[in-house]
C-alpha cells in the first residue's frame, strides 16, 4: 500500500491553473440587404423629390453691380496680333497686352510660356480655324 506523507513548508505553494473556456458556438452574422446600384438610387430619390416637394420658384438675387467679364490672355493676344504688322513672340505679346491694360497677370511667373502653349494648342486643335498662325520658331501672326 502506498501511503501519503504530508510535508509542511514555509513557502506558499503556487499552483498554476490553466483555465480553458469552451469556445462558444459562433452566431451567424445577420445578412445585409443588397445594395441598389447608383441608377436605381437616383431614380428612387428623384421619385421622392417629385412627390414630396412642391415646386416653388425662388426670386432672382439682385446683384449689387455686374462685374465685367475678365478678358483671357488668349483673347487679348488675338486682338494684339490682329493689329500688329509683323509676327511677334509670346513674350512681346504679353508685354503689349499688359502695357495696354487689356490683361493683368496673376501669380504666375511665366505668362509668356503659358500663352505660347495655349496658342500652340489652339493651332493643333482648330488647325485652319485657329486665330493664330505659327510663322517661324516662336513667331506668331493673326490668321
Task: Describe, in plain words, how this protein is organized in 3D.
Helices cover 37% and strands 6% of the residues. The protein is mainly α. It has a domain at 73-142: Arc Repressor Mutant, subunit A. Strands 1-2 form a two-stranded antiparallel ribbon. The longest helix has 16 residues, at 111-126. The radius of gyration is 40 Å and the shape is elongated.
List the helices and strands and how they pair.
Layout: H1 38-52, H2 73-83, H3 90-100, H4 111-126, E1 132-136, E2 139-142
Helix pairs in contact: 2-3, 3-4
Order of helices and strands: HHHHEE
CATH topology of the domain at 73-142: Arc Repressor Mutant, subunit A
Q: How many whole angstroms does the radius of gyration measure?
A: 40 Å
Q: What is the general shape? A: elongated
Q: Which stretches of 5+ consecutive residues score pLDDT under 50?
A: none
* Largest sheet composition: 2 strands, antiparallel
* Largest sheet, spatial ordering of strands: 1-2
Secondary structure: number of strands: 2
| CATH class call of the domain at 73-142 | Mainly Alpha
End-to-end gap: 123 Å
CATH architecture of the domain at 73-142: Orthogonal Bundle
Amino acid at each position: 500500500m502506498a501511503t501519503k506523507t504530508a510535508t509542511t513548508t514555509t513557502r506558499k505553494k503556487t499552483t498554476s491553473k490553466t483555465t480553458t473556456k469552451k469556445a462558444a458556438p459562433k452566431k451567424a452574422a445577420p445578412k445585409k440587404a443588397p445594395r441598389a446600384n447608383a441608377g436605381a438610387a437616383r431614380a428612387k430619390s428623384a421619385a421622392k423629390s417629385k412627390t414630396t416637394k412642391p415646386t416653388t420658384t425662388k426670386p432672382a438675387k439682385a446683384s449689387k453691380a455686374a462685374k465685367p467679364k475678365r478678358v483671357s490672355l488668349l483673347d487679348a493676344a488675338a486682338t494684339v496680333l490682329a493689329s500688329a504688322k509683323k509676327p511677334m513672340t509670346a513674350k512681346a505679346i504679353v508685354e503689349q497686352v499688359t502695357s495696354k491694360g487689356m490683361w493683368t497677370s496673376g501669380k504666375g511667373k511665366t505668362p509668356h510660356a503659358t500663352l505660347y502653349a495655349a496658342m500652340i494648342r489652339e493651332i493643333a486643335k482648330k488647325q485652319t480655324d485657329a486665330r493664330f498662325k505659327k510663322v517661324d520658331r516662336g513667331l506668331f501672326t493673326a490668321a
